[in-house]
UniProtKB/TrEMBL annotation:
Boundaries of every Fe2OG dioxygenase domain copy: 193-298
Family under the similarity heading: Belongs to the iron/ascorbate-dependent oxidoreductase family.
Entry GO MF terms: 2-oxoglutarate-dependent dioxygenase activity; metal ion binding
The entry's keywords: Dioxygenase, Iron, Metal-binding, Oxidoreductase
Keyword Glycoprotein: no
Protein name: 2-oxoglutarate-dependent dioxygenase 19
Length: 349
């Protein structure tokens, strides 16, 4: 039988306290009630997620390219980003979480538009209760303007390089996706002003949890942006939803997991679907993930692409300025509530 949830001993837990320190407390053998999020964190194993070899995207065979680009979640290999850089960004992110709390508290979010934010976060569940998440995070806007926490010192250089390299992978992928959608070469790049594409770096730290089925790292959600890139320290935890079922993702070492996000669903008028995913926790090992959310230029208005609307007879989503969508989403803390649902145009609207 699962041990009972501990009584509210930690009722004075500050809103934005870090989970790392709590998890390291030697007396913790159950999940404090503020974190209680009963869930079945087991996911099925999926062999059906094909691995995308980035070099194949240069293939002359359009069918080959279309096949790989039709999938929602793609572990990308041969992407050209050196393994040493992937390792360096994970290591520098880990060093950030190991800083004294006072250094991290400097970035406690005061408003959704703060370019650097750090904390652990909470959501309001369906029963209107605040639930703390079993993860610490740091997020910073890295493009078109570059922001980065001051410490650890090495983060700045590594993050700037990671941002530059991921941008070129992004533009190549989107060029092929555009072609796959039947759009003219350069159409996505021009319309969404990808020279100034928005990039948000996020690192997540999930310490071991004494009762993994009684807490959640990040509940089910979709990401803002066009494509999200994700790497991790080799500890499993990311699950994606497909046909209502949860699947574990197990991407090969040094691959980058690419997920379709909300703005590609909007832009493609629903041809690509934003991937619903969540991060579950485990009792054994600390997990770190590094995410680069890649979107349109902050001031670009994202709407379904005109040629696709013509084919479909109507747009299925309302237009919205990219950065407004992001900031609405970053301030929306209702569990399970999606921004995308709010701007979907229903059949009888
Ligand atoms: O840590 C993970 O695997 C998921 C992270 C995530 O979904 C996010 O930061 O939006
Ligand atoms: Fe996400």
């Amino acid at each position: 039988m699962a041990p009972a949830i501990a009584p509210m001993k930690l009722s004075n837990l500050p809103e934005n306290s870090f989970v790392k320190a709590l998890a390291e407390s030697s007396t913790l053998n159950s999940v404090p009630s503020q974190f209680s999020f009963a869930n079945d964190s087991r996911g099925s194993h999926s062999d059906s997620i094909p691995i995308v070899d980035f070099s194949l995207l240069a293939s002359d065979n359009p069918d080959q390219r279309a096949k790989v680009l039709g999938t929602l979640t793609m572990p990308l290999v041969n992407h050209g980003i050196p393994d040493s850089l992937l390792k360096a960004i994970i290591d520098a992110s880990l060093e950030y979480f190991e800083l004294p709390e006072a250094d991290k508290r400097r970035y406690e979010a005061k408003s959704a538009s703060d370019p650097i934010k750090s904390g652990s976060g909470s959501v309001i569940n369906a029963a209107n209760h605040r639930v703390h998440l079993w993860r610490d995070f740091v997020k910073s806007y890295v493009h078109p303007q570059f922001h980065c926490p001051d410490k650890p010192q090495k983060l700045r250089k590594v993050l700037a390089e990671f941002s530059e390299k991921t941008r070129s992978v992004l533009r190549k992928l989107l060029q092929d996706i555009g072609e796959n959608l039947g759009l003219e070469k350069g159409y996505i790049d021009d319309t969404l002003k990808l020279d100034s594409c928005f990039q948000l770096y996020a690192a997540n730290y999930y310490p071991p949890c004494p009762q993994p089925d009684q807490a959640i790292g990040i509940p089910a959600h979709t990401d803002h942006g066009l494509l999200t890139f994700l790497i991790h320290n080799g500890v499993a935890g990311l699950q994606i939803q497909h046909d209502g079922k949860w699947f574990n993702t197990n991407s090969p070492q040094n691959s980058i997991l690419v997920n379709t996000a909300d703005h590609l669903e909007i832009f493609s008028n629903g041809r690509y679907k934003s991937v619903r995913h969540r991060a579950v926790v485990n009792s054994e090992a600390t997990r770190i993930s590094v995410v680069m959310a890649n979107g349109a230029a902050p001031d670009a208005i994202v709407r379904p692409a005109e040629p696709l609307v013509e084919q479909d007879g109507r747009p299925f989503y309302q237009p919205m300025k990219f950065i407004e969508y992001v900031e609405t989403m970053l301030s929306n803390r209702l569990e399970g509530k999606s921004n995308l649902d709010c701007i979907k145009i229903q059949q009888d609207d």
